[in-house]
Predict the 3D structure of the following.
Amino acid sequence: MTRTALITGATSGIGEAVAEAFAKEGFRLIITGRRAERLNLLAKTLNDKYRTDILPLNFDVRELAQVESNLANLPEEWKKIDILINNAGLAAGLSPLNDGSIDDWERMIDTNIKGLLYVSRIVSNLMTANGGGHIVNIGSIAGKSAYPNGNVYCATKFAVDALSKGMMMDFNQKNIKVSQVCPGAVETEFSIVRFKGDEKRAAAVYDGFQPLSAGDIADVILYIVKAPAHVNISDVVILPAAQASATIFNRKQS
Ligand code: NDP
Ligand code: 8X3
């Protein structure tokens, strides 16, 4: 039977690559993000290319009222969500805690933790009503090990790690699988967002080694959601071959 997946943050990077991989697989998709133009273009492109039904929902995961009005009132034919990919997220800034921007902290906490919670609460209830489902949270190597100046971003991803474990326990009796995928360095818009549009500083993050692509992460997520019903791949760390920890990279100087 055709499965339906909801992917948050599908307007770029990992979320967009997952949307393409899932559409190619024939899944029906609910895709979300704040940038409406990109979202609608992606929906049209994937629909034209793969002929699968796509519902674009334009909202900010930080705004509870927007999350509720979009997800609690889904059209009847979209209420059976089989897979939720909690992907929307960001890092903002990279500085010692004493120099940190309160606004950056709030953006990260509100998006990466509270947004994931708002979406998961509603969708897990829909899944329960439909007899089960599969939630995949996008954590990070930053949620396994903190690194200098990463303080609040790392804390939000440690929270995702804890929530993934807690959700797996809470949903164990509800036939909802919970998985977490924790990437290392993936070249997306992530660093451009972190450094507030400074493309040179963002590019330097990936200097001298081959980072992961968003497609590499999408491949892993597709594998996880296609595992047999009795199998849950609960926690995956995926790193570039040149990365050995949150801070150790084998960079070749050119
Ligand atoms: P991108 O910046 O390319 O994509 C982030 C996505 O999140 C965009 O689609 C963006 O959409 C969406 N998003 C951000 N804030 C909000 C919000 N408030 N409401 C709704 N959507 C939002 O980065 P990545 O693809 O790399 O990041 C995806 C996830 O992967 C994040 O959770 C990130 O922490 C995680 N990750 C990334 C790694 C990397 O190295 N790139 C490594 C490990 C984890 P829009 O702006 O349109 O709202
Ligand atoms: C993104 C990876 O190491 O830049 O979560 O924090 S890192």
Notes: The chain has a mean pLDDT of 98. Strands lie at 4-7, 28-33, 54-58, 83-86, 133-138, 176-183, 235-238. The pocket of 2-hydroxyethylsulfonic acid (ligand 2) is lined by residues 140-142, 150, 185, 246 (CB under 6 Å).
